[in-house]
Structure formats: structure tokens, C-alpha cells
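Inputs:
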Amino acid sequence: MAEAMGFGHAVKRKEDARFLRGRGNYIEDIKLPGMLWLDIVRSPFAHAKIKSINKEKALATPGVAAVITGADLVPYKLEWMPTLMSDKQMVLPVDTVMYYAQEVAAVIATSRYAAADGVAAVEVDYEPLTPVLDPIKALEPGAPVIRFDRPEKTNRIWHWEVGDKAAVERELKNAAVTVAQDIYIPRIHVASIETCGCVADWDPVEGHLTLYMTTQAPHAIRTVVALVTGHLGLAEHKIRVISPDIGGGFGGKVPVYPGYVLATAASVLTGKPVKWIEDRSENLQADSFARDYHIHGELAATKDGKITAMKMGVVADHGAFDAAANPSKFPAGLFSIATGSYDFQKAFAQVDGVYTNKPPGGIAYRCSFRVTEAVHAIERMVDVLAHKLNMDPAELRAKNFIRPEQFPYKSALGWEYDSGNYQGALDKAKQIIGYDALRQEQKAKRARGELMGIGISTFTEIVGAGPSHTFDILGIKMFDSAEIRIHPTGKVIARFGTKSQGQGHETTYAQIIAEELGIPEEDIAVEEGDTDTAPYGLGTYASRSTPTAGAAAAIASRKIRDKSRKIAAHLLEAREDDLAWEKGKFFVKGAPDRAKTIQEIAFAAYTNHPLGMEAGLEAVDYYDPPNLTFPFGAYICVMDIDRGTGQVKIRRFVAVDDCGTIINPMIVDGQIAGGLTMGMAPALMEEIVYDDNGVNLTGSFSDYLLPDFERERRGVVVGRADNGWCAGIQREKTDERMCARAIRLSALHPLSAIYHAQRCGRF
Amino acid sequence: MEKVTININGADYSAEVEPRLLLVHFIRENANLTGTHVGCDTTSCGACTILLDGKPVKSCTMFAVQANGKHLTTVEGLAQNGKLSPVQEGFHEKHGLQCGFCTPGMMLTSVAFLKKNPNPTEGEIRWAISGNLCRCTGYVNIVEAVKYAAEKMKESNQ
Ligand code: FES
Ligand code: FES
């Protein structure tokens, strides 16, 4: 029999079997009898009045079954839909388009090609309006207000602030040293290789909707659909959301996009299944945008570099609708982690969300909510301060780190950090990369007029949202769930409220159960993504799955163990207290031969359970984490910059990550390697660019450059040889939160480190 | 409409198709072999890579009628008699895939490359596969997977 591996083993992934053989089941692979195709007419203007839409030619196109416009949705009250941020968003505009590539009409046809023909034949007459594109100007008095539907006559969506503003202002006035810096983190795109899409299958007889959908949060979607369509008679028990295999999500597949709603409406209208799949240009132009933070940072410090106060002001470009997916009480996400790894008691942060004539943005892209933005802001400011003080940035950080003995540490903006060894992480990164020697080399090179940069980013993140007293989305608390059933033969089916998009949940979750119950991983089937079968959960994004659903798996396993003890006592004719657990079995203390394996116990649970006990062996847990977790680390990047051509060559990049208890080191390494490359990209090549009319100039992979093998080689050279992965400076204690840090994603920190390296190259 | 017959992984598939039908759609929708993916519309990502008479081709950039009478290999044709090919094994052993969406294209490009160059350096591997994009892995483990496959193929040739 196979062995149970559990924690710390590089168990090869269970999900690989189907992907390697081309047998994954992605949204594009779903094909239902009689299925129709939906394609979308999109706006060529960033802001315009719709004067008329002529469907005639489209309807005469062979294969076209219907054309839907905003006006067609009005009788059903479906022209607007609510967003996860308590705003609303147009499904289709009735008279005004708000951004370039916005959905204007939908064509339903018998094939993909016929639908595209129909789109080409729809005639829309526009009257262009001046777009509002600069979020800072959008806040100026007299700026045209773009959201005509709102009673508030301003482009400001909300203002959020935290901290002691007066104290910070005083400190900035009186401090020996202050620095101020504007920092822009550009709009970027997740660009998962699979775009978004769905197949909506309405059964008119049963009044039942099955929605196959690229979603990272299937249960939340089901509830939202029920709320949105309640007035049309659709109820939550008649909605089944199935999230099949997902070809990368990175936060882009959390929000609800108009295409999903249109396909659903089209299926109801036609009584047939309707498929909508975005092409790449649509994806890069209309959805899945992140960042777009205009930051103004200030720090106060003593002459010798002890930071005494921080102020951060942000103008956040959210596009025309506030449609990210932050927890309800946190419109600016967890930006308040911006005090980072540093010990000072005066801080103030404010963020203004702003409407512009751009598509909605601000998703949690490969990080927890706005944590990337926060880390980059503070790390950049610390470097600016180091430059002003003419101090080594590593030394300045060392001077300001929260020390290990200060944990649990209450940050100036109110978070309770659980643990950390920041200096330890930085020392380790410095030692691996040979920091001192590099600084010598840099000095010599500069003397010769050559440019060489060394960039440092240390960080504290905040992940695992979140405790129910503070965290909810549209009122639904941010717990997550696991349901485990042990079959009579000792095999397991386990279902979760989360949804993997490549993180390897099928393997990691099986390892957690294996660790807790001693059942081999290969005997454990893991399922996610079907709301008819999985327990309710909030889904996978913001580095939350392992800390929440993973922990739920551990606790559900322990509930099963509790019942197993009773069954074992019955089988062994012993008292429960006299039994001891050892991975996979209960035995009588002092008589290890008298034992029952978990498999024997499972069999007995169905065939020979004690009188008065319920049959079966299963448990469900909805885990509400007591706190978030605060992983940390230190990244260092070394680069050469060609003075003549500006070409940047990253020589070495070392990443030291606190990973807590590592469940599967292979998967953790893989996540970090992916995060590094993704983080490097916005520092060196990726940015969504609009022209003066609000037209997206980066709407294809020929313009929006993803790192490829070659670019990556010129860029980051990383690998196990660096010995820098997951150095595991400090292990977290193994309690309910044991899984807290094992899988997380780190996209930003490379950005900061590379950016700093570039900057220091220039200085 | 044009009648085409294309041999995919040893079996013939015939259909009446529009001349504008892309080869990738023929493979996915006419032959129902959904392992070949579509990730872009500018011949940039390589998710749709297949072998056409042994050569790697981006099947989103070719019409089905152009492949009439040709022999294709798709990801479904890599494993033989239920046994993974060395490249597939490499991707599994070296964790060369996460979401799996780019993987079929990556593997087919690698198969063709290793046939031409059984003894590649890391630089050659990176160059050979630079027409395929992956958003998840950061490429490190894909390179390792290809190296693994090269070693494996050498062993079995000895
Ligand atoms: S789908 Fe063919 S290259 Fe992207
Ligand atoms: S594994 Fe997800 S795109 Fe490559």
C-alpha cells in the first residue's frame, strides 16, 4: 500500500495526470448539445453617446439567432448589475459608453464564426464625448462627472483613511529629516494564458440554470446571480455554478464581467446553452486589470536614520465602475500594511478611489488585496530615505526593522503581526548573494563610469482573509470550508469552497488530510468548483486558500479522528482515554500491537459501529481564522545597465521567503518562481497604455509584452542553485493556522527590488 | 465548403469545412481533441502548437484546408500505450506545469526540438521554446523538464 506522505514532501501533483495528456476540462472544452455562441460588439470610443444601434444586417447574417442591446435588457432590469464592491456596472449601455472596448451589444449565433460575422454587421452610431482619463484631474473641481447615474456629483468613489493624521503632520514638520516622493504603479493586466468565458445552460422546464464559468469564487457567484435575478424568478437552489479547470486566474477571474451575464440572458432567451469565450484582445482591453495607484509618500526620520513617521496618499484609478473584489470594509484593500517591516508608531494613509473612462481595475493580482501596492510604496520610500541620508539601504532597513522579540507586534495602522525575523531574512539574502562584495564591485564600476544596480526589497504581507469579525464580501463572511468523507474501504473524497487555478490544491489538500489522518495521498480525491457538491466557501484569491480552506481540512480531519477514537475504543474494547494516535492508527497505550488502522475504523463506521452512534465517517468544517498571517521576506536583485543602450541585465536575484510550515516544497518553489517572473515584468516591460482618447494601445500579446523564455533569460536568472528559495528563516508553530503561509504568491517584491536596482544604477 | 481529411495521432478525421476554419478549431471542434488550446489571436503564445508532419506549427495561424492530407500530432498523441513520453514525464517530475493551459504547446515544441537537438544547453532550450508563453511557472521548471526529457531519451537510446 502507498504511504501517507503529509507535510514537507515534494509529492508530485495529482492534477498533472490529466493536464499532461490533454485531458483537462477548461471552459473552452465544454460543449453541450444545441449550444449557441455569443460574441460581443465593443465600443471604439472611451466615452460616447450611442445615437442608434442597427441590428438588421446582423440579423440577416447566416447563422445569427439574436442580437441583444442595452435597450433589450431594460424590461428585465438587467442593463445594470451590482459589483462585489457595492457599486453597479453596466451589462450593456443604454445610451452612454464609458470605456474603450466596453460591451455594446451581443450577437448569438450557431457557430463561433457566424457570431463574429454578426458582430461585424452590427451598426452603431456614436457621438464621441471627451473622456476623463487622468484620475488626479478627475478630482479637480469642475472636472466633468462621468457617472451620470449617481446622485453624488463627483468622480470620487470613496475616501478611505486610517491613522493619526495630526500626529504624523506634526512629526513631518518637526523631524530632522523628511523625504517625499511620487510613485506610480501602472495599470497592468493578469494575462492568464486562458482568457475568461462561460457556458450558460438554462433549462426552461425545471427553471434551472447551470453556469460553467471561469471563476475563482463559484459560491459567491451563485449567490450574486440569485440576488441579481431573484426578480426574474431564479432562486439559489436552481442555480449551479461549475468552475472547471482554470487556465490561470491571478485575481482576474474573481469579478463578474458583462459577458457572463449576457450569456446567461441569451440562454434564457433562446432556451439553448450559450457559450461566450473572450479572445485575447478583448481580454487585454476590457477586464482583469490591476494596480493603477498614484502614490505620494512621505517619511520623517532622525538624522541617523530612525524612521519616526509615515504618510501615504493614494489616488486609485478604478475605471468607470468600482468592480474589484475587496472585502467590504476595505475599499482600498489591505493597503494599511504599508508600514511594512518597520517599527514606528506614527502613520497615516489615505486612498481616494476615482472613476475614469477606463475599464474597471484594481483586482488583487497575485497578492493579497492591495498588498503589492503597499509594499512597493514603503520599500520605495525607505530607499529614497537611504539615498537622502547617503546610507546603505540594507543598513537603514536594519536600523528600523521590528525585532523578533517585539512580536506579536501592533503596527501603527492597527494590525497585529504574528511573528517575524526580518533581519534574519535580510542577512540570509545578503549572505547568499554576497552583498558586501557586490557593493565593492559597484563602487569600482561606478568609478569607471559603468552602471550597476543592487536593489533590495524586504516586505511584510498580510494574507489569509479573513477573520469574520472584520472580513466579508457583500456581507458574506470570509471563512472557507472543507468537507471530508471516508468511504468504507478507507478511501476519501474531500471537497472545498476554494478553486485552484494552477496552485495544485488537489495535491496540497490531500497532503493536509494525509498528515492529519495518515491516509495516503493517492487514496484521497479532492474536488472543488461545483456549487452543487462543494461546501460553501469564498473561493481562491488574495493568498487565502491554504490558510482558510487548508486549515478547515485539518480541523475536519480532527473531527473525524475524534469519532474514529470512539469506534476504535469499541473495536478494541478499550477506554477512549487508553488509546493513543499515531499517524494512521489508534493503539492501546502500552500495547502497540492492539491497534486499529484508520482504514479498519472506516470500515467499521459502516459495518460495525457502536450502538447508538451515527453510522459513517465524515466531517465538514467552516474555518474562521482568528487573525490574518503576516509572511515576510527579503529579495535582492543585481543588475548591470548598459549606459549606451539602456539595456538591463539582471545578473542575480535572490529571494528569501518566510513560508511558514511548508506542505509541499516543490509547489512552494514553483509558486515563488512564477511570482518572481510575474513581478519582474511590470518593472521592466508590462504596462497597459492608453492614448489621449482613451484607446488601449496594448491590446494584444504583440504590444503587451509578457516575459518569455528569452526575455526572462535576459531578465531574471533564478533557480534552486541560488539556494535562495524559501529559506524558511522561521517556522511557524503548527496549530490550526499551520497551513497559513505555505502557499502564497509574491508578485510585487521583485518589482520593488528590480526598480530599486535600476534606480541605484542611475545614481 | 471544402472537404478535408486530416490524420491526427494516427486516425483520419474528415469534414466539410469553411475555407476560413482555423486548424486549431478543426482539431478542437471537428476532431474533438481539446488538449490543444488557444491563448491569443496574434500568433504569440504557442498554446496551440501541434506537430505538422513532425514540425511544430501554431495551429491558430493556419487554415484547416492547408492541413488537408497531412499528419498531425497533438498532446493526445504523445503517450504511447498508456505510457507517458519522456517530455511528459519531465514536466511531471520537474513540476513544469501549474494551470496546465500552456503545457500541451510547450511539450510539443519541446518534442520537436529534442528530436533536432538531443543534447541541448540551457540557452538552446530557452531559445527553442521562446515562442511559447507561460504565465504561471516563470519558466525555470519548464527548462528543467526539457533537460530531464533529454537525459531520459539519451538513456533509452543507449
Ligand atoms: S493561440 Fe496560437 S499562438 Fe496563441
Ligand atoms: S502552467 Fe499556466 S500558463 Fe503555463
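The mean pLDDT of chain B is 97. Flag for discussion at group meeting.
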